[in-house]
Amino acid sequence: MSIALATTLKTSFDDAVARTREALSAQGFGVLTEIDVKATLKNKLDADMENYLILGACNPPLAHRAITANRQIGLLLPCNVVVRSDPDDPESTLVEAMNPQLLVDVTDEPELQPIAEEVAEKLKAAIEALGN
């Protein structure tokens, strides 16, 4: 099983970020957190790297269902979506979302299976919308 649902876009990083936010929103996800890994590593370690942004996406009804099924699931929320420049192709941007099946596999909680399937369906729809 892959840990990510992913696509590659032939577009700029900024355009990919904007399109990713729109696609997530269309599927009922809000972005609760944003971590600019490139800026953080530059500021803290003076290390250079390509654009790399982690968006913490949350669909409140689905998050509520997951937390109701297993209170510890909050350790694995929100769903991380990474938008990053492809270090091997400067004209490409990668968008990768966490595979929600990990929530079920890590917890071995059968109640999470239908929730993970619904989250996966919505994240896949968002990723697929980026290609259009």
Automatic annotation (TrEMBL):
Gene3D superfamilies cross-referenced by the UniProt entry: TT1751-like domain
Pfam families linked: DUF302
Cross-referenced CDD domains: DUF302 (cd14797)
Residues forming coiled coils: none
SUPFAM superfamilies, A to Z: TT1751-like
Domain DUF302, first and last residues per copy: 35-100
Name the UniProt record assigns to this protein: ABC transporter
Source species: Mycolicibacterium arabiense
